[in-house]
Amino acid sequence: MKKILLILASFMSLNGCMQSTALLGPAITVGTTGNVYQASLSYGSNMAVKQITGKTPSGHMTSYVDNKNKEKKFEKEITRLLQSHIEIMRKKLALKN
Questions:
Q1: Residues in contact with 39: Cβ distance below 8 Å, sequence separation at least 6, in sequence order
Q2: pTM greater than 0.90
Q3: 57 near 49, Cβ under 8 Å?
Q4: CB neighbours (10 Å) of residue 94?
Q5: How many Å apart are CA 83 and CA 77, to the nearest integer?
Q6: How far, in whole angstroms, is CA 8 from its chain's centroid?
Q7: 52-78 per-position pLDDT tens digit
Q8: Which residues, other chains included, contact 2 with Cβ-Cβ below 8 Å and sequence gap of 6+?
């Protein structure tokens, strides 16, 4: 029970840290490679995506993947409905013959 409460408390307290981690990736890049240009390009592109789409790059990618999954589900549902309609029509035609 204590572990669950500790995990829940840490999730609640660390929930606001996500936005400040946008600078963490470029900072690690500068620290490991020393390439300031690459780090600034990474940070700048992240901020450009956020400004254009209103979402963070990871949030934008997540919504893109979710939309693709919804489209696939819709296509499967349409295919299922059309196949069932074709089967019904074949049975009706077979009865007439």
A1: 26, 27, 29, 30
A2: no
A3: yes
A4: 8
A5: 10
A6: 24
A7: 878 877 787 788 788 877 888 888 888
A8: none
